[in-house]
Amino acid sequence: MSEAVFDKYERMGAYHWRECDRSSKVYNPPLAARYGMVTRRVGAGRALDLGAGDGYLSGKLAETCAEVVAIEYEPSGVALASKMLADRPNVTVRQGSTYELPFEGRSFDAVVMADVIEHLDNPEQAVREMSRVVAADGEVLVSTPQYRPDRVWDERHVKEYTPEEFAALMGVGFEEVKLVFAWPRAWSDFYRTKVGWRLLRLAGRMGFNPFAIESDNANGFCQMLAVCRKPRSLPA
Questions:
Q1: Cα–Cα distances in angstroms (integers) from residue 205 to residues 101, 151, 195, in the given order
Q2: Torsion angle of C-alpha atoms 5, 212, 58, 199, degrees rounded to 10
Q3: Residue 94 belongs to what H/E stretch?
Q4: What is the residue-wise DSSP string for 142-186?
Q5: Are 140 and 48 in contact (CB under 8 A)?
Q6: What is the pLDDT of residues 47-82, one digit of tens each?
Q7: HSE-up of 38 (CA within 13 Å, CB side)?
Q8: Are 57 and 33 in contact (CB under 8 A)?
Q9: Does residue 111 surpass a pLDDT of 70?
Q10: Strand partners, 231
């Protein structure tokens, strides 16, 4: 069993860091909102970031967590994350697979996976591993774009989920699954226009990011976050 291999970090470098910087010319309000909806729900304990990429999310978690472990499958991502996080002593970067995590059961207070699960060919195994390593009273946070019949978010995605499919998938590993929705569709469609892209980027730099608006209702939203508690599996 293997995970998808991407060359995006070799081509684009640590782009998440650039695009989440409000002072940057390439500031990306939807991307910043995606990470924000995850980080504000994580406490101060020990966190595991799966599919950490260039390490941006791990870096944000390190601001409040006592310890962060970043797992990335792609070697170029591991190298970038190690470089970008070198000044954060409470972060450890490791190469590894979400299908076989090198940790004992119940090792983490929080496990996060930001827009990675749609790339996996065996997401159920990844969910089982998240369920195994999170503490019994811990929390798992997994984000993914909501399926749209009118467009494909990314050709590299193995599967894009409806809310019902996403909740069922996370239910493989957790007794309690709550979905939260962000990225209002109207703002997302406006952002795809030349005028909207410029205006919303400017608004984001000034502190207004409409992509951060959240709802419990799936209708009219493009991004999903599964907040998962009560892991089903027991440590080996």
A1: 38, 28, 16
A2: 70
A3: strand 91-95
A4: EEEEBPBTTB-S-TT-S--B-HHHHHHHHTTTEEEEEEEEEEEHH
A5: no
A6: 999 999 999 999 999 999 999 999 999 999 999 999
A7: 32
A8: no
A9: yes
A10: 174
CA distance 126 to 128: 5
For residue 4, the model assigns a pLDDT of 58
DSSP string, 44-93: SSEEEEET-TTSHHHHHHTTT-SEEEEEESSHHHHHHHHHHTTT-TTEEE
| Element of type H or E holding 16 | helix 15-19
pTM over 0.90: yes
What is the residue type of 113?
M
Are residues 33 and 103 in contact, defined by beta-carbon separation less than 8 angstroms?
A: no
Coil vs helix vs strand at 234: coil
Nearest to 179 by CA among 232, 222, 130, 131: 222
Q: What is the pLDDT of residue 233?
A: 65
Q: What is the pLDDT of residue 173?
A: 97
SS3 content of the chain, % helix, strand, coil (to 5): 35, 25, 40
Report the 10 Å Cβ neighbour count for 16: 26
202: amino acid identity, one letter: L
